[in-house]
Amino acid sequence: HLPGDNEKIQRGWPDQGKIDVNKVYMKYRPDMDFVLKDLNLEVKAGEKIGCVGRTGAGKSTIVQMLYRMREIDRKEKGSTDSHVHFDDVNTQTVGLNLLRKNISMIPQTPYIFSETIRTNIDPLGQYTDEQIWRVLEDVRLKEHIEKQSDGLNTRINGGSSIFSVGQKQLVCLARVVLKPAPVLIMDEATANMDHETDNFLQEKIDQRFEKSTRFTIAHRLTTIANYDKVLVLSKGRKVEFDEPYKLLVNNIGDQEMTNKTGHFSIMVQNTGPISSKQIFDIAKNAYFDKHQGAGQTAH
Ligand code: ATP
Ligand code: MG
After folding, report:
1. Does residue 297 register a pLDDT over 80?
2. Ligand 1 atom closest to Cα of 29?
3. CB neighbours of 106 closer than 8 A, spacing ≥ 6?
4. 113 in contact with ligand 1, CB cutoff 6 A
5. What is the rounded distance in angstroms from the CA atom of residue 268 to the CA atom of residue 221?
6. 162 CA distance to ligand 1 centroid (A)?
7. 262 touches ligand 1 (CB under 6 Å)
8. What is the chain's percent helix, strand, coil content, to nearest 5?
């Protein structure tokens, strides 16, 4: 707890869920190059942002920045305008406990403590067994855990695996679904996830975090085609940040992909003609739903 935390809690912070990233630079070691370079992002309350980019572009580093697993760097020594604001409060002035209580996070590699199943799902011991079982049922892990010798109190050891990778992902899902925060950051697994589990996870998250601000690092473009905005990162820089449909057309109203040269457009085209059309249609429909037909040509 930091001295100012109580005051923030009392006045109801965070009450919206907007995020402002301003001139952020990050590097992993002083002798290395910046991995994020002059990142500026404005995320409005409740917006869903999908982040894409090649391996090494800096996507997971953004997660580390937002969750404050690493502190931000400044390009110029003494510069004070590099910051991350969460509902108008600089996240560096907030105690880590308070900050993380308000950000649900699903990491790229599911994180399991060498502890009991119960502790893994409710690390602070705030919920009853009944509430935990209910969440486990919701994420379809109940039956599997009932089969374990000590039920919720079964210990999970680092090496031994009573869970498959997909199930570990569901343990992380149970952890965040137990208490949805105003912001959800999700760093999707690159591999090892079967489509069925992946779809199930997306669906649950859509239900439980309907009103939350969401920042999702996605590998399947269909997942984010209906999001409010897509952020394309390349070598640590923001190269595109806009509504997916707008990134795929030259003129609002276009009924097919007319912008063929944008970063996002090229990523979409690389998924093949059938999938491209699917992604475009999802993006187009989401755009016109949201803007209620503005600019749509009659046909
Ligand atoms: P992927 O799609 O493979 O998950 P990413 O976009 O998430 O990639 P990051 O993990 O953010 O990429 O990495 C950005 C750059 O920082 C890469 O060049 C990576 O090698 C480097 N990097 C990441 N973590 C560390 C670390 N702990 N120490 C040193 N360098 C790191
Ligand atoms: Mg990553």
Report:
1. no
2. 29
3. 169, 172, 173, 176, 184, 185, 186, 187
4. no
5. 7
6. 29
7. no
8. 35, 20, 45
- The model carries a pTM of 0.92
Which residues are paired to 140 by β-bridges?
none
The pLDDT score that the predictor gives to residue 161 is: 77
Q: What is the pLDDT of residue 159?
A: 58
294 contacts: CB under 8 Å, gap ≥ 6: 252, 288
Structure tokens at 179: 């208490």
Asked whether residue 156 carries a pLDDT value surpassing 90, the answer given is no
Q: Could you give the CA distance from residue 192 to residue 184 in angstroms, rounded to a whole number?
A: 22
Residue nearest to ligand 1 atom 30, measured at CA: 28
Q: Report the half-sphere exposure of 203 (CA within 13 A, side-chain side).
A: 9
For ligand 1, atom 4, which residue shows the shortest CA distance?
55
Place of tokens 């085609």: 225
Residue 73 to residue 99: CA distance in whole angstroms: 19
d(CA 5, CA 182): 17
- How many Å lie between the centroid of ligand 2 and the Cα of residue 57? 8
Does ligand 1 have an atom closer than 6 angstroms to the CB of 59? yes
Nearest CA to ligand 1 atom 1: 55
Sheet with 19-26: strands ordered across: 36-43, 19-26, 83-86, 89-90
Block residue for tokens 């989401």: 286
